[in-house]
Specification:
Blueprint (H helix, E strand, L loop, with lengths): L2 H22 L13 H70 L6 H6 L4 H73 L2 H25 L10 H12 L17 H12 L7 H7 L2 E2 L9 E4 L5 E7 L2 E4 L8 E4 L5 E5 L22
Antiparallel strand pairs: 1-6, 2-3, 2-6, 3-4, 4-5
Helix pairs in contact: 1-4, 1-5, 2-4, 2-5, 6-7
């Protein structure tokens, strides 16, 4: 990540911090200002949330390309290692073929091969034994020639694969750069919009957002759709413990610890530290992990948000999740309905829940 971009993210964090300060400090003015129009604030909130979603979608695409690039680089390395081994074997088979050619050359120029010399001796048994030696020698020569052809073909095939794999890596690297630029562009739009708002607008935005979240949470809990299982699996318990230890660390796109996280960086690392390796991105987590109905949710499960599966959080029970929400914020405990739910996945489907579980204390008041 470039220093310039880090500064940009820090600027956004400062803006968010300034917004929080504004919320707690009355705005000084010569005369009381008219309250902002509710519909315009609602429109601003919709725009801001849309920008955040675009930024997170771009971030998850960047993360996915980064994972593909890592796998492709491993593939290139393996092919290169195989190619080096094949070329070494080819050199050995060429040396063997050279020895055969020299033997045949000597035999065709008046110099008897040692095997033919045996056949011209006066001892029949020796001649018979020598005949077997000649047969073995012929077989060895044929095998050497076969190995030469096989190794030549293998080296040629691997050379083509190595070239193609390198081209694929270069294409992924170019795609990764485009994804990075998309993230920067999306975050710059968020920063620009935040910088254009007044303290009063920021205050109203926060109040309206909190009101929307509270209402969505109330509706979900009242619906009875949310399961009440209180105990995670042993690995789920460890994932929750790790996630709690990260509370307060800043959101940074593409980050997966130890000092900062994005949404899927937090969930993937929580489960990795618990001993259960899961995909890096929210889209892949949604795509590849077993899904469970919302009424079967238990602590340790992953909650996936938005239609494109662009956000993820770790469920901790009692209708709460731990998440890395968005740029300018930090890892925190939130209501499960803080974003539109898509579904729930379970990294350790089939594992039994703990017989006894005491969840960590939730710091502060969820928001």
């Amino acid at each position: 990540m470039s220093g310039r971009f880090v500064r940009s993210v820090c600027t956004m964090a400062l803006i968010a911090g300034a917004a929080s300060a504004v919320l707690s400090t009355p705005v000084a003015s010569a005369a009381p200002a008219d309250p902002p129009d509710r519909s315009s604030v609602s429109s601003l909130l919709t725009q801001l949330q849309s920008l955040y979603r675009k930024a997170e979608e771009a971030t998850e695409k960047y993360n996915g390309t980064e994972e593909d690039l890592k796998k492709q680089r491993d593939r290139v390395k393996k092919i290169d290692d195989d190619l080096a081994a094949a070329r070494k074997a080819l050199t050995g088979s060429k040396d063997a073929a050279g020895r055969i050619a020299r033997e045949q050359y000597q035999g065709g120029n008046g110099t008897l091969s040692p095997y033919v010399g045996f056949l011209l001796g006066s001892d029949p048994q020796q001649a018979l034994d020598s005949g077997h030696q000649l047969q073995r020698a012929a077989g060895q020569r044929a095998a050497a020639v076969g190995r030469l052809a096989e190794n030549e073909k293998r080296a040629a095939d691997l050379a083509v694969k190595a070239r193609d794999a390198l081209h694929a890596e270069q294409a992924l690297a170019a795609e990764q750069k485009q994804r990075r630029d998309d993230v920067r562009k999306s975050l710059a739009q968020v920063e620009k919009m935040l910088a254009s708002l007044t303290g009063e607008q920021l205050s109203e935005l926060r109040k309206l957002e909190q009101k929307d979240i509270t209402e969505a949470q109330r509706k979900l809990l009242d619906s009875g759709r949310l399961g009440t299982a209180a105990a995670p699996s042993p690995l789920g318990s460890k994932a929750i413990e790790y996630a709690f230890q990260q509370i307060g660390k800043p959101y940074v796109w593409g980050a997966e610890g130890p000092d900062s996280f994005d949404c899927s960086g937090l969930t993937s690392q929580a489960w990795a530290h618990a001993g259960g390796v899961i995909p890096r991105t929210s889209q892949e987590q949604w795509k590849s992990l077993p899904r469970v109905p919302l009424n079967d949710i238990r602590p340790g499960d992953l909650v996936i948000y938005f239609e494109g599966a662009t956000h993820v959080a770790l469920y901790i029970g009692n209708g709460l999740v731990i998440q890395a929400p968005r740029p300018g914020t930090a890892v925190k405990v939130s209501p499960i309905a803080s974003n539109p739910l898509l579904g729930v996945v379970r990294p350790d489907a089939g594992a039994a829940p703990l017989a006894r579980y005491v969840p960590p204390p939730v710091p502060g008041t969820p928001s």
